[in-house]
Write a structure and sequence with these properties.
The protein is of the alpha/beta class and 255 residues long. It has 8 helices and 11 strands. It is globular, with a radius of gyration of 18 Å. InterPro entries: P-loop_NTPase (IPR027417), T_Tr_GTP-bd_dom (IPR000795).
Length: 255
Amino acid sequence: MYLISLLGNGDTGKTTSFAKFLLKNNYFLEHQEEAIKNAKFDAEINGKPEDYYQFLLYISPQEKIEERTIYTAQKIMAYHQGKFLPFRTISYLKFTGEKYERVIVESPYKDGFAKGYITFSLQDIGGQFDLFDKQINGLRISDAVIYFADDKTTQKDAENHAKMISAFKLPTFVVINKEDILKEKAIDKLNMILTTFKEHKINVIDKIITSALYKEEEIVKFIENAIKWTIQKEIRIYDKNVFGVIRNVNRSIAT
């Protein structure tokens, strides 16, 4: 199984992008409408009606109490014949009127591993630095990183994250989010990140300037390409396939 980690400060678009990837690929299958309905209701009562995406990733009421999407924001999936599929189980929170209940449904693709499906896990390891230990443990077993930066990301932030990424020599995909806010400063932000990562000898595989909130197709495609590259050593850049990167099998996690 492969592990791809989303890293970056809080509110840089990790959770929104993660959720949009799941929805675009119909992760919740026939339960998707219900999952969205519950997430929107949750967002409404929490005063965030336009930002329901984060509520799709919560898997326990405890996370809601802490008001964080942290280490446990993780989904195990399978890739087969060009499709991203839910693997093992599908889970989401449902509000019954009195309390939250965790709904767990068996995936119809749970036997996919035996059929040769490629399995991977996508996880949001959080942006709060008080979660440093959990972030490091998450990166330690990762195969690749999708790094998110936005208008509030400073050079010090980039340097701190670069040290974490370079410690495990992880290939990295860079997302400069909130293009609508950054405008012409987006290029400067990207160059700052790339320069910092280069100084730490981080292998940046691909990069994008986008808006996770307004350019759904773009950010989802970028995440899909990052996953494909990680599991197949292939990514399409400028209509050319680039091969040849060897995965460090010592970082693979047990299935």
